[in-house]
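Narrative of accomplishments. A recurring question from our advisory board has been how the design workflow behaves on a single, concrete structure rather than in aggregate. To address it, we present the structure tokens for one chain from the evaluation set, followed by the sequence designed for it. No filtering or post-editing was applied between the two.
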């Protein structure tokens, strides 16, 4: 049974940083393309970024490019989302997701991923 668990969320002031982690007890993280999404109150879930299986390739949404970085440690079955220069509009529940299917271009939608964590709240105060 796949069980992704996010951690590291919390309350931070604008301009601050947080690092989210997503881990599982099996090998789901280490074997799959991993994505990060977020959902703010009253809004649809939106793509944040993803990282390839090897970690050699990443892509980000324009809204976080240059501020957020995704990395992975396959030996620890963990993927990270480093968030710097946080803004109040970054406030959301953040989810990690796994894609076992092969890579293709533009895997930016929720339906491109098959396994999801429960989410962790990030709140950025102004």
């Amino acid at each position: 049974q796949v069980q992704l668990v996010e951690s590291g969320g919390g309350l931070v002031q604008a301009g601050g940083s947080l690092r989210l982690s997503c881990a599982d007890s099996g090998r789901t993280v280490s074997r799959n393309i991993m994505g990060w999404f977020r959902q703010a109150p009253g809004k649809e879930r939106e793509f944040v970024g993803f990282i390839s299986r090897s970690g050699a390739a990443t892509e980000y949404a324009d809204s976080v490019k240059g501020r957020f970085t995704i990395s992975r440690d396959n030996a620890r079955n963990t993927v990270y989302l480093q968030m710097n220069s946080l803004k109040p509009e970054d406030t959301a529940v953040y989810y990690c997701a796994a894609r076992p299917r092969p890579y293709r271009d533009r895997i930016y939608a929720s339906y491109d991923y098959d396994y999801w964590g429960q989410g962790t709240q990030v709140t950025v105060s102004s």
